[in-house]
Amino acid sequence: xxxxxxxxxxLSLEVIGGEGSLSNVIKNVYIGDLxxxxxxxxxxxxxxxxxxxxxxxxxxxxLGEAACVIIAENAEIEDVTINKANEEGIPLLRSNxxxxxxxxxxxxxxxxx
Length: 113
Fold this sequence. Notes:
It holds the Pfam family DRTGG. By secondary structure, the protein is α/β, with parallel strands linked by helices.
């Protein structure tokens, strides 16, 4: 396990919103872009990797109690999504890496802890 803050530092992730919850613990990784599918399958304390950036992402993350949401490939994020992440206390991060590359890196750090 690793905290969102530790992961942010190791992977040089950009914090976009939800800074107050960087102490959340990440237990596993989930990748998905179809929100209804993610809602049904994501587990508590997963780091969710997606390229979706609309405000519904934060609602799904909150419902599933995700540790954080990581937006891959430097996708643009609307202000309304950032504001919602801040309101819900969901760490919202961004990376230039692909979802695949992020998952490999996260798996390495989760398994090593």
